[in-house]
Amino acid sequence: MEVAIVTGASSGIGQSAALQLAKRGTGVILTYGTNRQGALDTVAAIEELGGAAVALPLDVGRSGGFPAFRDSVVTALRETWQRDTFDYLVNNAGFAQMAMFEDTTEELFDKFARVLLKGPYFLTQRLLPLMEDGGAIVNTTSNSAMESGMEEGYSAYASMKGGLMVLTRYMAKEFSKRGIRVNAIAPGATRTRLADDAFERFPEVIPAIAAKTALGRVGEPDDIGMVIATLLSEEGRWITAQNIEVAGGYNL
C-alpha cells in the first residue's frame, strides 16, 4: 500500500486531502498542531472508509522537533504498514493572519517565515531519505502570492507563500534525479478554520468573495483536496514544477 504524509490534516484542506487519498487506497500519516481531536476525527473517517491512518503531533514552526518526528514516522510506517519508506508528502500545515504592511511586527513576520517557508524546507529535507524514488510532493501555497489573488493585508504571509512557490521549482529540479515530482497548489479563499475560523466569525464577507469569483462561490476544502490527491496520483505523472491556482477564477 502507498503511504502519504499530510501535514496540518486536523481540518480544512489537509483533512480533505487525507480523506481523498484514503479513498484512492493510500495509507495516511497525518499531523496536527493544537487540534488533536480534529486529527482523531480524520483518522476515524479514514478507518470508516476501510483505510489506515496514524495521527502524529507536529509543530512545523519548530524545526528542532523534526528529528523526533522523523523517528515517529519510521515507527508508524513499520507498525502500521510494515514499510521503511513512504510515497507522498503534502506540505500543507500553516496559519494565516491579516496585517497591513505598517502594522506587521517582526514577531509575526518571523513566525510566518518559520511556519510557511522554513518549516516545509527543512521538514522535506529531513523526510526525503525515507521517500520512495518516483514519489511526489505537493506544497500548499496561496493565490495571495499571485497577481490574481492580491489583497491588502497579506504582504508578509504572501511573501512566504511566494518563496514556497520558488522552492517548489527548485525541489522539482533537484529531486527529479530520483523521479520525484514536486508541485504546488495555490488555493483562493476557502472555507476552512484558517485565520481563527474567519468565515465562521465574519460570514458577511462570503457574498463579496463569491461575487469576485468567476464560478460564483467560495472554495470548499474538497475543491482543493481532490486536486492534491490527483497531482500525487498516476494522473499527475507528467506534471512537475507547477504552481496551480485552485480558486474558481478569482478576480477573473
List keywords for this structure.
single chain, 252 residues, alpha/beta, 7-stranded parallel beta sheet, globular
Summarize the model shown.
This is NAD(P)-dependent dehydrogenase, short-chain alcohol dehydrogenase family. Helix content is 44%, strand content 17%.
Question: How is this fold's topology laid out?
Answer:
Elements: E1 3-6, H1 12-23, E2 27-32, H2 36-48, E3 53-57, H3 66-81, E4 86-91, H4 106-127, E5 131-140, H5 155-175, E6 181-187, H6 194-201, H7 206-211, H8 221-232, E7 243-246
Parallel strand pairs: 1-2, 1-4, 2-3, 4-5, 5-6, 6-7
Helix pairs in contact: 1-2, 1-8, 4-5
Describe the structure.
The chain has 252 residues and is an alpha/beta fold. It has a single domain (3-246), classed as NAD(P)-binding Rossmann-like Domain (Rossmann fold, 3-Layer(aba) Sandwich). 44% of the residues lie in helices and 17% in strands. The protein is globular. Pfam families: adh_short_C2. InterPro entries: NAD(P)-bd_dom_sf, SDR_fam. This is NAD(P)-dependent dehydrogenase, short-chain alcohol dehydrogenase family. One of its GO terms (molecular function) is oxidoreductase activity, acting on the CH-OH group of donors, NAD or NADP as acceptor.
Uncertain parts: none
Please write the string of helix (H) and strand (E) elements.
EHEHEHEHEHEHHHE
Shape: globular
Q: Please, what is the average pLDDT?
A: 95
- Record the strand order, biggest sheet: 3-2-1-4-5-6-7
Alpha-beta classification: alpha/beta
CA-based gyration radius:
17 Å
| Total DSSP helices | 8
Question: How many separate domains?
Answer: 1
> Could you state the CATH homologous superfamily?
NAD(P)-binding Rossmann-like Domain
Q: What summary fits the major beta sheet?
A: 7 strands, parallel
> What is the share of helical residues?
40-55%
Do you know the CATH architecture? 3-Layer(aba) Sandwich
Based on the structure, what is the oligomeric state of the protein chains? single chain
